[in-house]
Design a protein that fits this description.
alpha/beta, Rossmann fold, 2 domains, six-stranded parallel β-sheet, five-stranded parallel β-sheet, 14% strand, binds NADP nicotinamide-adenine-dinucleotide phosphate
């Protein structure tokens, strides 16, 4: 009997996965019944996959997510049920770091205001934009110095900016200043870039105190998860001029973020598309395929979480 593969969220190149088994389109019809015998579920990392939904599929042995972040999945329950989880680390790192750089530059240099000024024809009447802060020599605090954090640091160094970081553990080999907590990092930095995982351990890590420490000349860039930032505190600081600007790829409520945030003039918004390049998404889909193929063939998983 061909393997059953529950599709929880549609991922790229599903047709390739169909070569490995029968796709059970739970994402389309919401009917869990065909998936009751399935051992594999594929998902995209954004749609929540909690205990109750996992338990709709009693024979699951593998959850393969096409994402690095696993905060949407109840990992404790997967462990308890003996379900392996694979993700897609590494292959999107450079593209997400590019998005962080793009958002930092756009927020600091007023790209959206400048774009609107030119496109609207108001330039002639209104004259130039106000002068903007420079990137060269800027202190860039990176919250999370893993794969993406390090790729962001390399880009900032190439610009002549100075990266520093906070993570759970110091990495002396990197030769960058380490800060013991996020407030100290934000206090030092002019730009704070968030690159930690989402989930319970980092919820609200970018607190009102961190935003206050970043200050009125500061820019917050978030390519991690919306949950990491106290969004109400961010809105208040941006609105009251206590923070210069923000560049955001991720939000608390996706895909319909709070209008109080999206309506502000000093934010640059991107629709959780940090990994949204053909190259990255092809590589992510390929990793999902290779993990599912390995599982079905009884071989070791390529990128297991544990
Ligand atoms: P990674 O290599 O695992 O790096 C994560 C970093 O965060 C590590 O430096 C880790 O510190 C640090 N960290 C974890 N928990 C922390 C905490 N409680 N306090 C402080 N630092 C903490 O992961 P990655 O590949 O760089 O990806 C990072 C995250 O980016 C993903 O989890 C995902 O949420 C997000 N992401 C977003 C997009 C997008 O499209 N916007 C795409 C891909 C990934 P230690 O080194 O000390 O453990």
């Amino acid at each position: 009997m061909p393997a059953g593969i529950v599709v929880h969220h549609p991922i790229r190149h599903l047709e390739r996965l169909a070569g490995l088994g029968t796709l059970l389109r739970y994402d389309l019809d919401g009917d869990p019944a065909p998936g009751r015998e399935a051992e594999v579920l594929v998902t995209g990392g954004e749609r929540p996959l909690g205990r109750a939904e996992l338990d709709l599929f009693p024979r699951l042995r593998l959850v393969a997510t096409m994402s690095v972040g696993t905060d949407a999945i109840d990992l404790d329950h997967c462990r308890a049920r003996g379900i392996a989880v694979t993700n897609t680390p590494g292959v999107l790192t450079e593209d997400v770091a590019d998005a962080a750089l793009m958002l930092a530059l756009a927020a600091r240099r007023g790209l959206i205001a400048g774009h609107d000024l030119v496109r609207s024809g108001r330039w002639a009447a209104e004259g130039p934009l106000p002068l903007m802060p420079t990137m060269t020599g800027a202190r860039v605090g990176i919250l999370g110095m893993g794969r993406i954090g390090q790729a962001i640091a390399r880009r900032m160094q190439a610009l002549g900016a100075e990266p520093g970081y906070h993570a759970r553990s110091e990495r002396p080999g990197l030769g960058m200043p380490f800060f013991a907590d996020p407030v100290a990092l934000a206090d030092w930095a002019e730009i704070l870039v968030v690159a930690v995982p989402g989930g319970g351990q980092t919820r609200g890590l970018v607190s009102a105190a961190v935003i206050a420490a970043l200050g009125p000349e500061g820019t917050l860039v978030n390519v991690a998860r919306g949950s990491v930032v106290d969004e109400a505190a961010l809105v208040a600081a941006l609105r009251e001029g206590r923070l210069h600007s923000a560049g955001l790829d991720v939000f608390l409520n996706e895909p319909a973020p709070d209008a109080a945030l999206t309506g502000l003039p000093n934010v640059v918004l991107y629709p959780h598309h940090g990994s949204g390049t053909v190259r990255a998404r092809d590589a992510m889909a390929d990793l999902v395929f290779r993990n599912v193929a390995a599982f079905l063939a009884g071989r070791p998983l390529v990128t297991p979480l544990w």
